[in-house]
Amino acid sequence: MWSLEEQDRHHKGVSSSSSSSRCSPSSSVLPQTPKRRTMEELWKDISLNASPPPLDRHPVYHGRQADCFLRLPSMVLQDFLAGPLNRPLYQPQAAAKEPSLPPLETALSLNSAKEFLGEADQQANTQSNSSSNNTNGNGSISCDFSAVPPRPAALFSLCSRKRSTTEIHPGGADRHQKRMIKNRESAARSRARKQASHAYTIELEMEVSHLQEENAKLKKQNEEYDSNSLEKSKTENDFLKKEAESHVTNAEIKLAELSTNENPTDIEKEPTEGSKGEMKQGESRTTEEQPTEAYEAERKEAELCEIEEPSTELSKPEMNATEQLEIENQSLTCIYKIHTVECWRSKNSRQFILVYYL
Amino acid sequence: MSRDPLVVGNVIGDILDPFVKSATLRLLYNNKEVMNGSELKPSAVVNEPRVEIRGRDTRATLYTLVMVDPDAPSPSNPTKREHLHWLVTDIPETANASYGNEIVPYESPRPTAGIHRFVFVLFRQSVRQTIYAPGWRQNFNSRDFAALYNLGAPVAAMYFNCQRENGCGGRRYL
Fold first, then answer.
1. Interface of B with A in 92-131 (CB under 8 A)
2. CB-based contact (8 Å) between A190 and chain B?
3. What is the DSSP-derived secondary structure letter of residue B56?
4. How many C-beta neighbours within 10 Å does residue B106 have?
5. Digit-coded pLDDT (tens) for A60-72
6. What is the DSSP code string of A240-300?
């Protein structure tokens, strides 16, 4: 706690503004100084209140500031707002420092002592800083508020609601003040907590909406892709099918052609040159075609027949019919095995018939 | 106005400096994921949570996880800020903290006064380093810790609130 002496020193001396350094929670009561009396005089002169509370209030001072304060009916609003030091409540007599300080303050407020104001402004700034820090920070700086009284002009200049309510209980009502400060801090913390959870839910909601959009987009893409590929595959499929069909029809046609070509060779036994040529052509044609099983069988038969015929053609005209028939019979028995049949005539004019088997 | 729960809840400021998140940290107590800024009961956080870390590069990066209580012994009087609850190093990516090196074993949060924040801070280790346990749990400083071991800025952080299980424990007088 500040004594008036120290306060004077503070005002007139170095204007170091670190309030924490001055903070001393010990409420040591320093003895009255002669200056107080002058202030008391001032106070009496300047006192706004006609009937200040009597001396007996003093013992109650340390613990019951609030009560004294509230009981006084003649308090004017301006006095209230001006801060505790300006309260006309306190009688500036006893050993307590507090009562003595208000006179100084009222002196300050009412007179135009420039030096006071000048220095007090500095203190006001520091105090405003400290008080703002206090409400935001932890309670360890709460001792600052006990140092509130010595900063008169600050209270006068910054007539904020916050500060006025805290300054209701200066000095001795530390507990009340501290309680209030802590309540404030706790409220600030719970507000922060509420905001934090709220912010988190908002973030989550944003993410949800974002993900939903992405999901919809991707789904759409997926569908498009699917339908596209389906169509593509369908068209491809159709095309291939058609191709296959055409191939099949071609094959069928060729088969039919072949079969029609081959039938005449079966029937004829002694083909003419022209027919032979045709047969040969048919043979060549058949060999060109991609054979199926049945087709191959037919082909072989055709070949066989052709083989028969050329053999008969190749054979010398001297061969008589019986020999020819024999050859035919022989060849006909092993129908799928004969590859070629050849007729040879030796120098001795002997005829040899060679049959090549597969 | 920042919407980050870490900023609004004053985690950034009290314990950490602003950082850019570069990894996802998931904490699961009893298979329930912890939401940033949510409230949990002490009974739910008795045992250590499962940790899932996902970073940008999937190489063998190692992480250090710190769990502190910045509101010890009470939020209005955090003289023991920060109280160290857990310290695990060399956690491989996507693996649980059990694969790491538990320097300081997990201590169950047991707040006696007020609503405490419990903050998890994740650092990325550049190398596999030996980190020594501090002599005591209280008055730990995450900033100094990071500076001391060259961990750099945190890559992720998360916090939840926790208060006494039953009631407020009575008014505390100044």
1. 114-115
2. yes
3. S
4. 17
5. 444 444 444 445 5
6. HHHHHHHHHHHHHHHHHHHHHHHHHHHH-SS--HHHHHHHHHHHHHHHHS---HHHHHHHH
Q: Are A154 and B149 in contact (CB under 8 A)?
A: no
Beta strands in B36-173 (DSSP E): 39-40, 50-55, 62-69, 83-92, 101-104, 116-125, 156-162
CA dist B107 and B84 (Å) reads 8
Partnered with residue A155 across adjacent β-strands are: none
Please name the residue that has the structure tokens 């209140």: A49
Indicate yes or no: pTM above 0.80: no
Cα gap A91→A135, rounded to integer Å: 31
Which residue has tokens 């932890």? Answer: A138
Residue of B37, B78, B79 lying closest to A196 (CB–CB): B37
Task: Note whether A202 contacts B: Cβ–Cβ < 8 A.
Answer: yes
Q: How far is CA A15 from CA A113, A115, A119, A158, B84, in A?
A: 17, 12, 7, 19, 41
Q: Is A195 on the interface with B (CB under 8 A)?
A: yes
Q: In DSSP terms, which residues pair with B53 in a beta bridge?
A: B25
Residue A271 has pLDDT above 60, yes or no: no
Q: Report which of A325, A330, A326, A278 is spatially closest to residue A302, judged by C-alpha positions.
A: A278
Tokens 């609130």 label which residue?
Answer: B161
- Contact A140/B77 with Cβ under 8 angstroms? yes
Inform me whether the C-beta atom of residue A139 falls under 8 Å from chain B C-beta atoms. yes
A196 burial (CB, 10 Å; 0-12 / 13-18 / 19+) is buried
Answer whether B75 sits within 8 Å of A189, measured CB to CB.
yes
For chain A, the average pLDDT equals: 62
> Hey, is the C-beta of A174 within 8 angstroms of any chain B C-beta?
yes
Residues near A181 by beta carbon (within 8 Å), at least 6 away in sequence = A134, A135, A139, A142, A145, A166
* Chain position carrying tokens 């935001």: A136
Question: Which one-letter DSSP state was computed for residue B145?
Answer: H
Q: What is the pLDDT of residues A282-310, one digit of tens each?
A: 444 444 444 455 555 555 555 555 555 55
Residue corresponding to tokens 């850019």: B20
Whole-number Å distance between alpha carbons of B81 and B20: 24
Q: Residue B105, by phi and psi: left (phi above 0), alpha (psi -120 to 50) or beta?
A: beta
Of B48, B52, B55, B36, which is closest to residue B124 (Cα–Cα)?
B55
Considering only CB atoms, B35 lies closest to which of A189, A190, A200, namely: A200
